[in-house]
Amino acid sequence: MAVAPKSAFGSLLKIGDGASSETLNTLLGVRNLGGPEYSLEMIDVTHHSSASAYREMVASFLSAGTIPFDLLYDSNDTHHAQLFTDFIARTLRNFAIVFTDTGTETHSLSGYVSQLTLAAPIDDAVTMACVITVSGAVTRS
Length: 141
Description:
- By secondary structure, this protein is mainly beta.
- It has a single domain, classed as Hcp1-like (Pnp Oxidase, Chain A), CATH 2.30.110.
- The protein has one helix spanning 78-89, and strands at 12-16, 24-26, 30-33, 39-44, 57-63, 66-72, 93-98, 106-119, 127-134, 139-140.
- The strands form two sheets. Strands 1, 2, 3, 6, 7, 8, 9 and 10 form an eight-stranded antiparallel beta sheet that branches. A two-stranded antiparallel ribbon has the order 4-5.
- The two termini are 22 Å apart.
């Protein structure tokens, strides 16, 4: 079976509204979207009697890392403003990334807005670079 690559155009980043019956709303203006950055932490348990002088490792915690993204910033956009509110309040928020593959795979997660960087270059639009640090497991569906 051959791999059928898809364009990333149309991928979505959604942010939860925090209500008891939560709705995830699309963050508008997202240009570049990365992550989750899945990794497995390793513990070095090498000791003086380790076989063949090779390091011995034990698997530890899983991490989904961060979700870095850039967006065209609009100070009047409710969801853009929510990113600032969540950053200042240190709010754990639900997010989802919907990819454009055939099955429209979704990665649902909780995370903190851990970085916001505004930019206003003379020859481009006002943008904001953002980072969400994932807390806990990611659900793929």
